[in-house]
Amino acid sequence: MPAFVHRIETALPEASYSQERALEFMQEHVATRPAVRRMLRSLYRNSGIERRHSVMGDWDGGAGDPLFLGPDGAIASPGTGARNAVYALEARRLFEELAHRLTADEARSVTHVITISCTGFFAPGPDYHVVRALGLPGSTERYHIGFMGCYAAFQGLKLARTICDADPTAVVLVLSVELCTLHMQFSEDTDDLIAGAIFADGASGALVSARPPAEGEVALELHSFRSELAPEGEDAMAWTIGDQGFRMKLSTYVPELLGSTMGPLLDRVLGEAGLDRDRIDWWAVHPGGRAILDRVQEAGTIPDHALAASREILRRCGNMSSATILFVLDELLRRGSAQADDRILAMAFGPGLTIETGLLSLRKGPSALPERVAPTLPERG
Fold first, then answer.
1. Does the pTM of the predicted model rise above 0.70?
2. Which residue in 315, 351, 43 sits closest to 197, CA to CA?
3. Which domains does the chain have, with CATH numbers?
């Protein structure tokens, strides 16, 4: 029984700031040595990012209350509790906003709610509040996927597909909200500087069911997923809880490690589906950073146009952890270049080093898109 993503919605906090402004802010408040200032300039200006969003107004003096700036303009170091209090308020608002936008007047059809986040905690959790906000019955099945990192949206989509396999009448709401900027660290530690240069806030969601796309509708069919581990990178990417927020470890050799792993991994993933790289029309790669996209593109010999959606989301939004991959898929669809039966290979990376991949295809209801003559993907076993 196939499962389809029928709708994708994204949301960004109101406050935003240019990468150049963020660099000025960090140089003003963090860099006390010339070597650190040089590193900051290199990180920020070579990131491929132009703008990021935040639930706080520390960087631009706009919407949101400052969390890191005291009344005298000096940097404060709020504890994890203070950061999480902002998360509980802002994340709940974004989860509920996305749920309303995804369901519109069809909320009563939702049977399952899956929420995803690694940047905060509260209970009752976002899954509970989404059910209440939509007026769903208390018997609605709900799940929360927490603290898995940038690849966690794949776990949400896999769970949604499993639910649809078991119950063809199921309608599953998958929602991800990540508020990474709450965990900014104002130190000269290299990992902190790298994380501060790329992470941002954002929210995304998908509506999944086994119903084929209706007339005039475009949907993404979920074909197969695969998880891989690159254990040699276990210490290269990690996410821990400290007294002053969550601490991200993101070593500079992660892109090279991914690049060396990617070729054999793609051969396995595509070989299982009876495909080769030339038969993938579009690549939805989590933009963990510009260097990661560069290494994946080189290893996969991916044409520039096929990876353009990933680079565009990196440019406009930065790395929003698990929410990012749905931004990329949404951007790919909005560009209008994809045709019926085009194949998409999506992937994301996270602590472990974990690599998640998903094989999707663009499906259409009658008269939605021009026909394209192409072999269909084999049924998954």
1. yes
2. 43
3. 3-209 (3.40.47.10), 220-364 (3.40.47.10)
